[in-house]
Write a structure and sequence with these properties.
This protein is 44% helix and 13% strand. By secondary structure, the protein is of the alpha/beta class. Strands 7-6-5-8-9-10-11 form a seven-stranded parallel β-sheet, covered by helices on one side. Helix 12 links the parallel strand 12 and strand 13. It is globular and about 110 Å long. Pfam families: UDPGT.
């Protein structure tokens, strides 16, 4: 088998499936042969996927092609159709786009899905027959924008303070979502689900696992939030595995290490301290006997993270934590004509600037906006600026503003020289895939962490919006565009990240169906999962050892005193 050519192996598996179909046509349901990546949209992956459903069993059979073709073919016999509930409460497009590839891939494999989302993927009337989207958009965004986004005005607010605010707002937000008519009807229907997918940063949403009594997978649109790691038993260390809330993670002084350790303890304390807001909400909605968020979290089966292990610092994780970094990226599409013409015709190249979906650029401090305008006016490059208004005050002639930009496709254009970003993880993934150097102005959440990674991997620079000057910005732009090492480092990092035995989406789908097939994944649970620090550090054992040492030392002291006393008495007698 190992000596067959790639083409011979394709023929072998095609013949194998044909024989199976001829032998028992009544049992087979579907045969799909596809050479398109549309079913499993991945970074640059193009796979040939053979899928055959059986009635009673699920078998995964993978060929052993040559190393350069190892991602090209996967033969999968999936499970029977299952009913899956997706609960994704965060009103942010950058969060929601991560969940769509997974839910849609599961739907294309024949599963039925009910999805609670703030941003439906389909227009009314265009939703596939086996997907039902419950739209929570209007009220969710009203609450979020009023109470969270208005606190972000371009200043680098303390990330931990913002997270504490988000925890409280999340409880209020999810309560309002639960009270909507459609969600109430779903809860009262007592529908049966085989699997529940819950957004990892929305702890109160885990109550759905109590309502519907089904296995749970938490899905994160970025890295894990601190309680996730504790629940799954992944080791914590303030220097080796710093939390993504930190502003600085490399080249630390002793004082910065102490400060970082304090910040990590503080973030864990804040999550624990604010549990009562979430517990109160749950008990208001589901009665005094409802479980706490800690109890609900302890019942989670698996954790999917939208991050590559390299980006997370190769953190040690148990087998029920799955990395699926780069999940939301889609195959390349043709650019709109105006953007294509601008990019194609640019003589010196293009700078692309966007601060993501959670920051309203027109609400940034006017003096900072003018710093960008003045610097761009002195540069030879064309600029594409994602801007939310019809007009940009002081806009130079080489700057074009757009309310919406197909970011991934723009970044892949060879004329794009630089990406000025807020440092979001999805934007980072897209820049790495396109090998476009970065300059980050972190403003929210994990963006400081990501910007630190830019510098560490040599793929970009980190700047602060509140202190940026024309001179610093201009020098930084020239340095990144003019130094070929940034592009070289990006190409190498991309190669390291994409060289995997299977595409991230295929991996996520497989583990989701694995959880369905086995009615959960508790057997993959680490023995360190959700144990206290006292247990993890064996303080009881250390206490016993310390007590024994103290007793022995006490005995030694007593013996020494007795010997000294005896010698003194002997001297006096002589």
């Amino acid at each position: 088998m190992s000596k067959r050519t790639y083409e011979e192996r394709i023929d072998y598996y095609n013949n194998k499936i044909k024989k199976y179909m001829d032998k028992d046509r009544r049992k087979r349901r579907r045969l799909r042969l596809s050479s398109s990546s549309d079913d499993f949209p991945e970074n640059d992956y193009r796979s040939e996927t053979l899928v055959l459903d059986r009635d009673q069993e699920a078998i995964i059979e993978t060929m052993d092609p040559p190393p350069d073709l190892r991602d090209d073919i996967l033969v999968v016999f999936p499970t029977n159709s299952a009913r899956i509930l997706g609960v994704f409460p965060t009103p942010s497009v950058s969060h929601q786009v991560v969940f769509r590839p997974l839910t849609q891939a599961l739907a294309k494999r024949g599963h039925d899905l009910v999805i609670l989302t703030t941003d439906p993927a389909f227009k009314p009337g265009e939703t596939p027959a086996n997907i039902r989207e419950i739209d929570l958009h209007d009220e969710s965004y009203r609450i979020w924008r009023t109470e969270v986004l208005n606190t972000v005005d371009g200043k680098t607010d303390d990330p931990i303070t913002l997270i504490e605010l988000a925890i409280k707002i999340n409880a209020k937000l999810i309560e309002k979502q639960i009270e909507t008519k459609e969600v109430q009807e779903l809860i009262k229907s007592k529908a049966k689900f085989d699997l529940i997918l819950v957004e990892a940063c929305a702890r109160p949403a885990l109550i759905m696992s109590h309502v519907f009594k089904a296995p749970v997978i938490q899905v994160s649109s970025f890295m894990a939030v601190p309680p996730n790691y504790q629940v799954f038993g992944s080791p914590a260390h303030p220097i080796l595995y710093p939390e993504w809330t930190r502003n600085k993670i490399y080249n630390l002084t002793v004082w910065e290490k102490l400060s970082g350790a304090y910040d990590d303890l503080r973030i864990h304390y804040i999550w624990r301290k604010n549990e009562h807001f979430e517990n109160e909400m749950i008990k208001r909605q589901f009665g005094p006997e409802a479980p706490t968020v800690a109890e609900l979290a302890d019942n989670v089966d698996m954790l999917f993270l939208n991050v590559h292990p390299i980006w997370e610092g190769n953190r040690a994780v148990p087998p029920n934590v799955i990395h699926m970094g780069g999940l939301p990226q889609k195959p390349h599409k043709e650019l709109p004509e105006d953007l294509k013409q601008l990019l194609d015709s640019s003589k010196h190249g293009v700078i692309y600037m966007s601060f993501g979906t959670n920051v309203i650029p027109s609400q940034l401090p006017p003096e900072r906006i003018q710093v960008f305008c003045k610097v761009f006016s002195r540069l030879p490059y064309d600029v594409i600026w994602k801007w939310d208004q019809d007009e940009l005050p002081g806009r130079p002639g080489n700057v074009r503003i757009y309310k919406w930009v197909p970011q991934s496709d723009v970044l892949r254009h060879p004329n794009v020289k630089l990406f000025i970003t807020q440092g979001g993880l999805q934007s980072t993934d897209e820049a790495i895939s396109a090998a476009v150097p970065l300059i980050a102005f972190p403003m929210l959440g994990d963006q400081w962490y990501n910007a630190e990674k830019y510098v560490h991997h040599g793929i970009g620079l980190k700047l602060e919006l509140e202190s940026i000057t024309e001179e610093v910005l201009e020098d930084s732009v020239k340095a990144v565009i003019g130094d070929e090492s940034y592009h070289t480092n990006l190409v190498r990092l991309r190669s390291l990240m994409l060289d995997q035995p299977q595409p991230p989406l295929s991996r996520a789908v497989w583990w989701a169906e694995y959880t369905i097939r086995h009615g959960g994944a508790k057997h993959l649970r680490s023995p360190a999962a959700n144990i206290s620090w006292a247990e993890f550090l064996m303080l009881d054992v250390l206490g016993v050892i310390s007590a024994v040492v103290v007793v022995l030392l006490a005995k030694v002291v007593v013996v020494v005193k007795l010997v000294v006393k005896w010698k003194r008495s002997k001297v006096k007698q002589s």
